[in-house]
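Exercise 7 asks you to align residues with tokens for two separate proteins.
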Amino acid sequence: MNTQNIIKRLVSLIVVVGFTMNFSQAQMLQLENQESHLTVFGSSNLHGWKVDAKTKNGSIGFNDLESCDITHLSLAVSAESLKGVKLGITETATETLKSDQYKYILFTLKEVTNVTPKGNGQFAVQTIGDLVIAGTSKTIPLDFNVDIEKGNVTLAGNAKLKLSSFNLTPPKRLMGTIKAKDDIVLRFETNFTESPIL
């Protein structure tokens, strides 16, 4: 199966997962785009930079919400929705991520490796999942904190990555005088809530 088909299947999974999960066994919550934040941070030989994702969707599922027994987690970020404080940063980021060809940054959970209760509905969670950037998929560790309050769930964490791990070349600007570094950080705080049954 080629990479484009894998990406299409992942996006389809995120969109229709609610219809394919057994609701009698798993409690599903949907990502609230306006209440969620994801930022990509990087640096260059001159200064740091960041871009914020404006369009995000996804879902999380639990066998048991109170004990943070996660069975499913999928996230999709529109690469074309990444915006910097300056137009040049936005254009560089979307060009580097090949957003005209690969529309989404995707994460799908493979395994929860550890859950540590911290009290008051808070947990430290360690996971392994597949991250797809610009058509290249890598299995990565992803640790985050979970806050469960009145049926709403917040995930907060970050992931340190290298552009070259996803076959991407750190960009250069102004005839090579500005050179981005290979290291980037994805920082997120995503809120999930139960969607009303129509």
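Second protein for Exercise 7:
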Amino acid sequence: MTSPSPRSARAPRTVVGALAGLLVLLLLTGGVAAQTPEERLAELGIELPTPDAPTANFVKAVTTGNLVFLAGHGPCGGLDESNTGKVGLDHTVEEGYAIARWVGVCLLASLAREIGDLSRVKRIVRVFGMVNTPPDFTQHSQVINGCSDLMEQVFGPAISKHARAAVGMASLPRDQSVEIEMLVELHDP
């Protein structure tokens, strides 16, 4: 019996090392392959819309230092019966979730316009979600999950896990069903 050559003896360690490196990469990225946020959006079939102009005396985003403050956003692209009215009365929780997801897309559109490359995002720090509801509605968190789940799909859990509030409102501007604001930290330039 011949002994293995030094080169073939190293092969299993190299394969094991490569697999271990891949495992570490997957764990660090939250199981998301090394894709850019824009690539993940494309994979999800999402094209960022052109952000709507503000409806009052404010701007959609303000950057100070490495923080981006995104103003309260409602559904972009126009309001109609599909995204106005009260969740729990005019819309189901599932419809509210879909509206909140779309508002998340609108937030990302304003963020991309503000910073250019979404790969600059270091952390989604905070999401504040407001849901237009009747007084007895209690499933605000399930509605705002539409936005939070989208952020996780786009950025992975290591970047997207954020502090959050999800609250009910007696009314929202222009009778929109959901309004969300977001605070984002950027990588140092």
